[in-house]
Structure formats: structure tokens, C-alpha cells
Design goal:
The complex is a heterodimer of chains A (about 110) and B (about 110). Chain A is an all-beta fold. In chain A, about 0% of the residues lie in helices and about 50% in strands. Chain A has no helices and eleven strands. In chain A, strands 2, 4, 5, 6, 9, 10 and 11 form a seven-stranded mixed sheet that branches. In chain A, β5 and β6 form a beta hairpin. The radius of gyration of chain A is 13 Å and the shape is globular. Chain A starts with a strand and ends with a strand. Helices cover about 0% and strands about 55% of the residues of chain B. Chain B is built from no helices and eleven strands. Classes of the chains: A mainly beta (about 110), B mainly beta (about 110). The interface between A and B is medium-sized, with 22 and 22 residues.
Chain lengths: ~110, ~110
């Protein structure tokens, strides 16, 4: 199916565990983004990528790692999950010009 | 102070009313202004996009940008219960710059 998909949709993990959230887009968009959304904070940028093998930090990168070996995939890894990383995570992509970002359905992550 | 300020609401209005949603910003370098709509448990989707100042109309929706006042608005005419959602404003300095987001306003349209 065309579009941007995230997996899993829901995840419960324990403090200290490593967890990876997956993001896949079929448009060959240059730009990909990871956001977290929390009540009262809106969308906060974690990391973004302008192209394969090019990534950069956003507003709240601490505790997260990303990679982009292929244009269509942009996984987000929490190296050692903490309760403060409980959130809804959205992946997005945008073409050159970056004027419209398309969002995935989100991953609801709970760290216990 | 945040770069983009948006009242979180909730804003509750009766069906058929005209809705006005607003954002203020502090960075005069912003040139691209967007409104996204987010339904519960879904990702945001682009609703309106405006470059620089002026108005843009699309059906029941009108986006307005006043760069002199650093103020953007989204108007919804003949509001419907299906318009109930959270509306987020976003803006950028250039076409390849990161989007800066408002916190979102929750809108409730009562039948």
C-alpha cells in the first residue's frame, strides 16, 4: 500500500529495555521526521533526515538513535527506555521543498 | 516564551457556527504557514498551506496570515460535527526548514 506506515501501533516495554519503532514510506520522499506528541507540548521533533545516510538532531534527541540506510526506512531506537519516553510517536515524510509533511498513524509507547 | 503560541482549548461551538482558530508567533522570518487537522488517535493531516501574507480559501476553510501582527488564523464556516478535531498550526522559515508547531487547539462541534 502506498503511504507511510509505522509499526508497531502499540507497544508496552519495561524500563531499561531497548525498543525500535519502524517507519516506512513508499513515495521516495527525501525528508523523514520523528516526532513525539505529549499533552501540553504538541509535536516535538526528535530527529530528522534530509536523505539516506544524513540525519540530524531535533529539539529532543536525548535517549534516541536513528539511522537511514535506505530512503524509504527511518527506524527510531530507544537505547534504554525510561518512563519519561512514554508518548505517542509519529513518523512523517516530505518531498523536496518540505512544504507538506505526511504523517503515519502513530505508535503509542508505554514504558513501565 | 515559545516561538509559536496556540490556545489549547477546548473550544466548543454549536453546529453551523463560524469557528476562528488562531496562532501567534515571534519569529518574523517565518514565511510558510500551515494548518493541520488531527482526529483522535490519528496522525495530523495538512488542511491549508499559505506562503507569506494574505488569505487562502478552500471550501468552508479560510486561512489568513498577518505578518505585520505575527498572527495567523483559520476560519471554518458552517461548522459540522465532523470538524471536531485538534487543529495544529505549523510554520517554517524556508521550504527546507524544520516546521515549528503550535500545541494544537481541540475543537468540539456540538450537534
Amino acid at each position: 500500500d502506498a503511504g507511510i506506515t509505522q509499526s508497531p501501533r502499540y507497544k508496552i516495554t519495561e524500563t531499561g529495555r531497548q525498543v525500535t519503532l519502524m517507519c516506512h514510506q513508499t513515495w521516495s520522499h527525501s525528508y523523514m521526521f520523528w516526532y513525539r506528541q505529549d499533552l501540553g507540548h504538541g509535536l516535538r521533533l526528535i530527529y530528522y533526515s534530509a536523505a539516506a545516510d544524513i540525519t540530524d538532531k531535533g529539539e529532543v534527541p536525548d535517549g534516541y538513535v536513528v539511522s537511514r540506510s535506505k530512503t524509504e526506512n527511518f527506524p527510531l531506537t530507544l537505547e534504554s527506555a525510561t518512563r519519561s519516553q512514554t508518548s505517542v510517536y509519529f513518523c512523517a515524510s516530505a518531498g523536496q521543498g518540505n512544504t507538506e509533511a505526511f504523517f503515519g498513524q502513530g505508535t503509542r509507547l508505554t514504558v513501565v | 516564551q515559545k516561538e509559536v503560541e496556540q490556545d489549547p482549548g477546548p473550544l466548543s461551538v454549536p453546529e453551523g457556527a463560524i469557528v476562528s482558530l488562531n496562532c501567534t508567533y515571534s519569529n518574523s522570518a517565518f514565511q510558510y504557514f500551515m494548518w493541520y487537522r488531527q482526529y483522535s488517535r490519528k496522525g495530523p493531516e495538512l488542511l491549508m498551506y499559505t506562503y507569506s501574507s494574505g488569505n487562502k480559501e478552500d471550501g468552508r476553510f479560510t486561512a489568513q496570515v498577518d505578518k505585520s501582527s505575527k498572527y495567523i488564523s483559520l476560519f471554518i464556516r458552517d461548522s459540522q460535527p465532523s470538524d471536531s478535531a485538534t487543529y495544529l498550526c505549523a510554520m517554517a522559515m524556508g521550504s527546507n526548514y524544520q516546521l515549528i508547531w503550535g500545541a494544537g487547539t481541540k475543537l468540539i462541534i456540538k450537534p
